[in-house]
Amino acid sequence: MDGGGHNDVVRNSFDKQVPLFTGPASVFAARPGAPDRWGTLDGASVVLDVACGAAHVCEQLAPYVAQVVGIDLTPTLLALGAQRLRDAGVRNVLLQEGDAADLPFVDGSFDLVVCRSSVHHLADVERSLCEMRRVCRPGGRVAIDELVQPPAADADVQARYDAVHRLLDPSHLHALTDDDLLALVNATVGPVTSHSCNDPSALPLDAILTDASAREPVWRAIEDELAGGPATGFEPERRDGTVLVRFYTATYHVEVPR
Known about the structure:
The chain is an alpha/beta fold. The chain has helices at residues 3-15, 27-30, 56-61, 75-88, 125-134, 155-168, 178-188, 205-208, 215-226, and strands at 46-50, 67-72, 93-97, 110-116, 136-148, 194-197, 201-204, 237-239, 242-255.
């Protein structure tokens, strides 16, 4: 896919998703994961967060390292993150606009490179993963925490999952299976030294619908599944009058050889 054209889709979509990133109860503030998801943190480390959004992971890592640099395509989210960091008195995070497929850093610039829930938005996944490896210093680590297809999904369910996800967020391209992403990280970044499949997150559907979403088609697909229709991969559940949907993620660490 053309990175430039898709990058415009990403910016436009996330401009309309600002509420998901705003306030202490936002989806991204509420589920950053434990800091140790990124491995052992060193107080002298310089860290890069690729496709950082509104810098929630940057903020989480900042107390444990010397410097965090966050890079993202969407100026709106970067501005939102910068204001939150200023309000919180966080001084060791630098935010910069840029593309994961063409990171504006020299080789070996960072001790740790992280990327959370962003691979499924990337127009050129292989190139972006290679870039993460390139900018990580020898002896450093690349850590990726990423959305993956539901583990029991067959090819038809995987296709519906991507289709419904694009209705939720037009910047979504394709969620890989855990096996496929593991193989791709092995091939592009290096041998995976640590790998885990995380417990799924259950979120209210209402909480993740935004002005970027095609609300009625999303609800129709989910309600059809609840009524016994085709599986979407979101594994919807009605609980106390609220419809919950599930997201699966997996984490991959690569120790870059010295």
